[in-house]
Amino acid sequence: MNAVRTWAAAQWLLLAACAISAGLGTFAYSALSADDDSETGGLPLKHLADVSLGGRSTRLDYAGLDPDRHLLFIADLGDGEVIVVDTRAARVIARIPDVASVHGVLAIPELSRVYASATGSNEIVAIDETTLKITSRMPGGRYPDGMAYAPDRHKLYVSDQTGETETVIDVRSDTRIATIPLSGKVGNTQYDPVSRHIFVNVQSRRQLVEIDPGSDRVIARIDLPGALGNHGLLVERQQRLAFIACEGNDKLLVLDMRTMHVVSSFELGKDPDVLAYDPGAHLLYVAGEAGIVSMFNVAAGQITKIGDGRIGPNAHVVAVDGATHRSYYPLKSLRGQATLRVMEPRGQATTAP
């Protein structure tokens, strides 16, 4: 069969499969090229698929990935549910209800558990990954948001944004065991596996706070020159760097964790929020409320900006699978539907220089 006929047949089969799957209410792929909603510009990304998430077109927040089970957990803030996507089958397999105004989602594969911050009820909710059912609820302060896990201490740390504290949960009993005062509006929380400490953005003080999980006390406050609204946070263990996204001035700050000094700063798209890192490809992603994603190459301690591109409307959340190098972007409303956009680097971007 000649190439033209082969391509036409492939297109017909793809459209037929999409129609059948959409009729069954499972998933729908877009055409494999970017549409008018995606203008990746100079980003080395190609558009793989759009997966219908169901539910209403309401705000979607954090996402947590379990790469071993190939499950992506997405906070559906407006519907008060955690959406579960099978990333291999590219379809929604569950919607877990009764997680009021869910913001943060953190998958902990070694525990077979997912934690979600139910900001509407000021709770932390534990979900069993096997049954996809809620197993327990814990008090989470006044505005529970982002989370991080300290595995050697069996503790979960939760940002209480307006309560100006960090909530500590013992995951062995799923009980709150401490509340750490931070004296300011709290941004995201991350665990550093090298120091085995927890780091938290305190936005109103333009600081990064270091917590010792052994004592659950603040042991250092690191000033962040150039920060304004330092909300997003990611720790890269291999190169000992912390990346801090500032929503107040659209900046990315890079902190050397050996010296605890800011070593560089980059421009970002408007209102940056969530960061994700692909260690195999040495690629950093920063997603913003305006739908702009910024990409950086991070290798041998050097950070180089690759570029900015529009991934989709309100694409402020990104999750990356380090095994497949695919990146996932929950979109509140794409053509009137809540959608998960799936991208992957073009061939030359998956290999570190």
| Terminal Cα span | 40 Å
Oligomer: single chain
Order of helices and strands: HEEEEEEEEEEEEEEEEEEEEEEEEEEEE
CATH superfamily label of the domain at 29-58 and 228-353: YVTN repeat-like/Quinoprotein amine dehydrogenase
According to DSSP, the number of beta strands is: 28
CATH architecture of the domain at 29-58 and 228-353: 7 Propeller
Task: Please report the first level of CATH classification, the CATH class of the domain at 29-58 and 228-353.
Answer: Mainly Beta
Helical stretch tally: 1
Strand order of the largest sheet: 1-28-27-26
Provide the CATH topology of the domain at 29-58 and 228-353.
Answer: Methylamine Dehydrogenase, Chain H
* Radius of gyration, whole Å: 20 Å
Summarize the main sheet: 4 strands, antiparallel
Q: What proportion of the residues is helical, as a percent range?
A: under 10%
